[in-house]
């Protein structure tokens, strides 16, 4: 954990990350911009403030654990890890290109800082619980964060895991929902409504905090509040916008899994500015 | 003969690991009594975790335990722990190369009365196809106990298939038990029976009766279906010229398939496959079912006579 950074510095970092995400996706020629852009402020608050981690010691046994369950959002995570110094930034240009450590979906062990393989949705929270239970046996004090998408939580395993987090009072587990409103084929509301989202997590026994997921202040405050909770897992329902920061991608599900071409990239980068949520 | 189900051997092995391996933990989808993990639960309550009737979550949780340095044994019925969880086993366990042990009790037809939905008949095929997953089917409770202990020290994911029906004790403490190394149960030069689980004993009985007809059958206990003991298979093909595989499992892609993959690429000889013929199980007394689905010693003998008819210079031709 670092000292609480200024909102301006978090915003500036987020802007830089969005630029890098779009650029790497353009280079890769495929990938998932929408769900990467929606989680930038969440990752920024985690990696530049909340997480106890050390890029020089990715295997540090007492580090906090971040699990990206929505694996398709990995361009954002790869960018964060590179900007944190886990590996050289130049390597971002190898996303999805054989042979690469930057797999289309994250592979545990392939790249420093990647804690979990993901891509098949709905599995991260179970894994978070397993780590938390083992930590409890070992008397290890650390936090485990699991970031999921709002479409992802249609997976039944998520709710099996939610019951496990609650049953075992796993207060080291913090679920974060990037509720960006869209999934591959359209609005979550139309495909399989998951609302009322906060009530669902609350009823499953989670201390639930609902925030604007693009407001760095709200994200930081939610992470602080969650850490203080004892005897209960926490859920942060982050209300976000898929494709945030790029006007023509925002809330357009066509940008779930398509990379910008050169012209679109230029247009996107030209329009990028500090997100004021 | 001493009779005990292989699941009991697992329960005993797990108790042993409780003493010797502080990192071993057990998880269950509310079937710990059926899988005989409840002895461990009673002795080591702080190292036992129920996740309720939620197998997918159980496998994910087990993966988390392994990521934090534990050696989890995740237990349920063989059908549920491999069938409901194939995706979790593939991504969370195998792709991440984790040290998770999957324990499936109630494998095969010998579950009996519970019928088709509880009778796992396809797990070898599913588990064998997952990169890095070892697949083990012990033939008696002693072997099950030793397999359990060996699995804890074996790096990477392991699937253990156990039975509910009492199985006669046919292995010996004096013989070494090594994952991936088959056991020669009976010498013979005319044909080789390669079996696992309850079918090892049936194969020995079949060999006994064939002996009276002048057919000398070798019997191999192929307790590890993956990684398979290639050397023993190639030697058997070379030396006996005909093979019959025997399993309480579908003939599609299980032990028979694994043996055939070795045979056709190294030492092609005629083969026959004794097992379930693309069907579901049904309710009944275990013995009755093994008879109905043609897994009795007499059925194995039929397959042997059949393969010997096509064996070049076969035993049948020689007589």
Characterization of this structure:
- By secondary structure, chain A is an alpha/beta fold.
- Chain A has one domain (7-271): 3-Layer(aba) Sandwich (Rossmann fold), CATH 3.40.50.
- In chain A, 40% of the residues lie in helices and 12% in strands.
- Chain A is built from 10 helices and 7 strands.
- Chain A has helices at 7-28, 33-37, 40-50, 74-84, 124-138, 156-167, 188-192, 197-203, 216-228, 262-271, and strands spanning 65-68, 144-149, 173-179, 182-183, 186-187, 207-212, 234-239.
- A 5-stranded parallel sheet of chain A has the order 1-2-3-7-6, sandwiched between helices. A two-stranded antiparallel ribbon of chain A has the order 4-5.
- In chain A, helix 6 links the parallel strand 2 (144-149) and strand 3.
- The model of chain A has no long low-confidence stretch (mean pLDDT 97).
- Chain B is of the alpha/beta class and 319 residues long.
- Chain B has 2 domains: 3-168, Rossmann fold; 183-309, Rossmann fold (3-Layer(aba) Sandwich), CATH 3.40.50.
- In chain B, 42% of the residues lie in helices and 19% in strands.
- Chain B contains 14 helices and 14 strands.
- In chain B, the strands form 3 sheets. Chain B has a 7-stranded mixed sheet, sandwiched between helices. In chain B, strands 9-11-10-13-14 form a 5-stranded mixed sheet, with helices on both faces.
- In chain B, helix 11 links the parallel strand 13 (243-250) and strand 14 (271-276).
- In chain B, helix 1 runs parallel beside helix 8 (141-153) and helix 9 crosses helix 13 (297-310).
- Chain B starts with a strand and ends with a helix.
- Residues 315-319 of chain B have low confidence and may be disordered.
- The A-B interface holds A 107-109, 115-120, 123-135, 137-138, 140, 156-157, 160-161, 163-164, 167-168 and B 25, 46-47, 49, 51-52, 54, 56-70, 72, 87-88, 90-92, 95-97.
So what's the overall shape of chain B? Answer: globular
CATH superfamily of the largest domain in chain B: Thiamin diphosphate (ThDP)-binding fold, Pyr/PP domains
Q: How much of the polypeptide of chain B forms β-strand, as a percent range?
A: 15-25%
What is the N-to-C succession of helices and strands of chain A?
A: HHHEHHEHEEEHHEHEH
Question: Helicity of chain B, in percent?
Answer: 40-55%
Task: Write down the domain tally of chain B.
Answer: 2
Q: How many strands in all of chain B? A: 14
CATH class of chain A reads: Alpha Beta
Q: Approximately what portion of the residues of chain A adopt beta-strand conformation?
A: 5-15%
Residue stretches of chain B low in confidence (pLDDT < 50, at least 5 long) are 315-319
* Most extensive contact: A-B, 33 and 31 residues
Low-confidence stretches of chain A: none
What is the CATH level 1 assignment of the largest domain in chain B? Alpha Beta
User: Assembly type of the shown chains?
Assistant: heterodimer
Structure summary, number of beta strands of chain A: 7
The strand line-up of the biggest sheet of chain A is 1-2-3-7-6
- The mean pLDDT of chain A is 97
Global geometry of chain A: globular
């Amino acid at each position: 954990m670092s000292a609480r950074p200024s909102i301006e510095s978090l915003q500036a970092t987020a802007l830089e990350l969005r630029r890098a995400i779009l650029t790497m996706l353009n280079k890769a020629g495929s990938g998932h911009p929408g769900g990467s852009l929606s989680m930038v402020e969440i990752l920024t608050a985690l990696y530049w403030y909340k997480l106890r981690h050390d890029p020089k010691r990715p295997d540090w046994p007492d580090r906090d654990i971040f699990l990206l369950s929505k694996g398709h959002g990995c361009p954002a995570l790869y960018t964060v890890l590179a900007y944190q110094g886990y590996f050289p930034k130049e390597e971002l240009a190898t996303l999805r290109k054989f042979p690469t450590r930057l797999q289309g979906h994250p592979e545990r062990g392939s790249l420093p800082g990647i804690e979990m393989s993901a891509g098949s949705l709905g599995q991260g929270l179970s894994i978070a619980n397993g780590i938390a239970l083992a930590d409890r046996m070992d008397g290890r004090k650390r936090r485990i964060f699991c970031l999921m998408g709002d479409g992802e939580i249609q997976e039944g395993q998520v709710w099996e895991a939610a019951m496990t987090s609650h049953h075992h009072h796993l207060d080291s587990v913090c679920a974060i929902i990037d509720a960006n409103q869209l999934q591959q084929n359209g609005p979550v509301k139309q495909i399989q409504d998951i609302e009322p989202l906060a009530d669902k997590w609350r009823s499953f026994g989670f201390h639930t905090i609902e925030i604007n997921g693009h407001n760095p202040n709200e994200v930081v405050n939610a992470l602080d509040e969650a850490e203080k909770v004892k005897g209960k897992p926490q859920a942060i329902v982050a209300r976000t916008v898929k494709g945030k920061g790029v006007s023509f991608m925002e809330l357009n599900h066509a940008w779930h899994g398509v990379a910008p071409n050169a012209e679109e990239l230029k247009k996107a980068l030209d329009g990028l500015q500090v997100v004021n949520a | 003969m001493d009779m005990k189900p292989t699941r009991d051997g697992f329960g005993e092995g797990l108790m042993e690991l409780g003493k010797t391996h502080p990192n071993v933990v057990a998880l269950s989808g509310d079937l710990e009594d059926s899988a005989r993990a409840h002895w461990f639960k009673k002795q080591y309550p702080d190292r036992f975790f129920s996740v309720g009737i939620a197998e997918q979550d159980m496998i994910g949780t087990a993966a988390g335990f392994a990521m934090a340095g534990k050696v989890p044994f995740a237990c349920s019925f063989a059908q549920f722990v491999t069938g409901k969880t194939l995706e979790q086993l593939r991504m969370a366990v195998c792709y991440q190369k984790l040290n998770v042990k999957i324990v499936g009790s109630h494998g095969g037809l010998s579950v009996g009365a519970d019928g088709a939905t509880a009778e796992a008949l396809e797990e070898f095929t599913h588990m064998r196809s997952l990169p890095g997953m070892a697949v083990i089917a012990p033939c008696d409770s002693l072997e099950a106990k030793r397999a359990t202990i060996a699995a804890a020290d074996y790096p990477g994911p392991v699937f253990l298939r156990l039975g509910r029906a009492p199985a006669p004790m046919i292995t010996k403490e004096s013989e070494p038990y090594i994952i991936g190394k088959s056991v020669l149960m009976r010498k013979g030069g005319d044909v080789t029976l390669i079996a696992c689980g309850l079918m090892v004993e049936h194969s020995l009985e079949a060999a006994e009766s064939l002996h009276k007809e002048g057919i000398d059958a070798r019997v191999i206990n192929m307790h590890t279906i993956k990684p398979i003991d290639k050397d023993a298979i190639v030697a058997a093909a070379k030396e006996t010229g005909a093979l019959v595989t025997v399993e309480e499992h579908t003939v599609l892609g299980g032990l028979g398939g694994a043996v055939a993959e070795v045979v056709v690429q190294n030492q092609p000889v005629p083969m026959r496959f004794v097992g379930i013929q693309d069907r579901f199980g049904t309710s009944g007394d275990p013995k009755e079912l093994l008879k109905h689905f043609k897994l009795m010693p007499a059925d194995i003998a039929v397959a042997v006579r059949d393969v010997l008819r096509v064996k070049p210079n076969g035993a049948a031709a020689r007589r």
